[in-house]
Amino acid sequence: SQKIEQNSEALNIQEGKTATLTCNYTNYSPAYLQWYRQDPGRGPVFLLLIRENEKEKRKERLKVTFDTTLKQSLFHITASQPADSATYLCALGAGAGSYQLTFGKGTKLSVIP
Amino acid sequence: ETGVTQSPTHLIKTRGQQVTLRCSSQSGHNTVSWYQQALGQGPQFIFQYYREEENGRGNFPPRFSGLQFPNYSSELNVNALELDDSALYLCASSSGLAGGSLAKNIQYFGAGTRLSVL
Q1: How far is A44 from chain B (nearest CA, A)?
Q2: Cα–Cα distance measured from residue A68 to residue B3, given in angstroms and rounded to the nearest whole number
Q3: Chain A nearest C-alpha distance from B41 (Å)
Q4: How are beta strands B10-13 and B113-117 bridged, if at all?
Q5: How far apart are CA A69 and CA A49, in angstroms?
Q6: How far does the CA of residue B78 sit from the closest CA of chain A (Å)?
Q7: Is B99 an interface residue toward A (CB < 8 Å)?
Q8: From B96, which residue of chain A is nearest by alpha-carbon distance?
């Protein structure tokens, strides 16, 4: 069955450092991958989308990579700030004709001042 | 803000009862998806509606049903509630079926309805 794993349930990092979150998947061939941020008591908020034929995407301090051979996506936050503390979710999409998103459990990031 | 609103915010029901959760999508968004998020888990896809018709369903039993209305509102109905149905229920709207544009499947989530089944 399809499985999505995000590297750890929780990640603590010092302010100013780069946070790296991992999303691994098995038994799945996603056409694209999305990353969302979720704060306590709120719904997820879209951050970035990367297609299967793209290696890297950037948006301000965020960078995501997608390696379909390794079946892995890495999500980086550079110069992390306490305001970046949240749970980050990766979501896989099968592509046109199937609009279901399959989410991982998320990684709770805490940026320590 | 995402422009997606859900009501009520919290709800307490007892086992065997029925519940209706409501969502108001972002204006112009023809697609609405519903997700169930248990504590400490990621959202699980329940089903999706496009222009008032079901357009895909996850691994949920038929007692989970939905409706979508022309005015960008939608409902999730759950019959014969079970204890395991306790979760955060999220509604997400998107601008339409992908049709070649993956950007149309970016989900805009509401804050959710927290359902507790006792």
Answers
A1: 6
A2: 34
A3: 5
A4: parallel
A5: 18
A6: 20
A7: yes
A8: A99
pLDDT per position as a tens digit, A38-83? 999 899 999 999 988 899 999 999 999 999 999 999 999 999 999 9
B56 interface with A at CB cutoff 8 Å: yes
Burial-class residue A96 by CB neighbours within 10 Å (0-12, 13-18, 19+).
Answer: middle
CB A50 within 8 A of CB A33: yes
Kindly state the average pLDDT of the residues B37-61: 92
Q: Please state whether beta strands A86-95 and A98-103 pair in parallel, antiparallel, or not at all (unpaired).
A: antiparallel
Using H for helix, E for strand and C for coil, what is the string for A84-108? HCEEEEEEEEEECCEEEEEECCCEE
Under DSSP, is residue B104 helix (H, G, I), strand (E, B) or coil?
helix
Q: Which residue from B20, B4, B7 is spatially nearest to B81, judged by alpha carbons?
A: B20
